[in-house]
Amino acid sequence: MQIIENLFAKSFWYPLARCALAAVFIYSGIDKLVHFDAATAEVAGFGFQPASLFAALTVASQLLGAALLIAGGRAAILGALLLAAFTAAVTVLVHRFWLLDGIDQVRTASTFLEHVGLVGGFLLLAHHQARLSRGAPAA
């Protein structure tokens, strides 16, 4: 166990974890920006109007949150909280597995729970960074 603790005490893990959490939001934000018409159609398909405004807010949330997360320090707290709030909102509003049946319900519930896990990761990261920023142990 000591070997594992020593390995994960290395300082490179924390920035790597922040980048890993940000990766999907960077990709999605850039893809939606480059294909903004498709992003707007996707948002409209979920019933959000005005769709172009919600698509723009999605892109801004994803790219700003990811950039803050990667920046580290106190900015990472804001980025983690922004991405946690964004992901929680999208999860509840879009992945409504309780309205579905059969295999669609199973797939959507799985996606819902994966997103809940991301929210948990963002909250842990915000907590960890807040403790580091105050000079407290990261426990």
Give an overview in words:
By secondary structure, this protein is mainly α. The chain is 82% helix and 0% strand. It has helices at 2-8, 13-34, 36-45, 51-71, 73-94, 102-133.
Order of helices and strands: HHHHHH
Fraction of residues in helices? over 70%
Distance, first to last CA:
17 Å
Secondary-structure content class: mainly alpha
In round numbers, the mean pLDDT is 95
Biggest sheet architecture: none
SS elements, strand count: 0
List low-pLDDT spans: none
Cα-based radius of gyration, to the nearest Å: 17 Å
Which percent band covers the strand fraction?
Answer: under 5%
Shape: globular
Oligomer: single chain
Number of helices: 6
Summary of the model, kept short:
The chain is mainly α and 139 residues long.
List keywords for this structure.
139 residues, mainly alpha, 6 helices
How are the SSEs placed, and which strands pair?
Layout: H1 2-8, H2 13-34, H3 36-45, H4 51-71, H5 73-94, H6 102-133
Helix pairs in contact: 2-3, 2-4, 3-4, 4-5, 5-6
